[in-house]
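We treat protein structure as text, and this decision shapes the records that our systems exchange. Because each token names a local backbone shape, the row as a whole describes the fold. For reference, a complete record is included directly beneath this paragraph.
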Amino acid sequence: MRAGCARVVALCLFDESLAKYIEEKLRENMLVIRVPPECPLDVMHATLWALGEARRKLGEEVSPDQLVIVTDSTTLIHDDEVRRMLGPVKIIRVKGCTPEEVVASILAAACEPVYAPCEVDAGLGWLQA
């Protein structure tokens, strides 16, 4: 990964085989962490938990723009209040995508600068908020 890219991927996935595939493909380039099922699946809680876990594992602060959240949940809501509180958050929703498309989307999102909060749809490209 080049400088300035996201370096942490937080997986909020029900699909265990997809989670394992992503971990296998990205573990050399990025810290891949799984948001536990007991963590509420909304972007605020998932992001805060992932940032804390990344800080614990890396031993240093991680900002929201260094994080990519990957989810197959439709309940991960990204509302305006959350955007104002957390700043740039990159989200990839993986419904209907192949594992290869998901990994490619993570890598693309990781190095894409985010000036406004946005979502990444692995099938449709960037969707600006």
About this structure: The chain has one domain: 8-128. Strands lie at 8-12, 31-34, 67-71, 90-93, 118-121, 125-128.
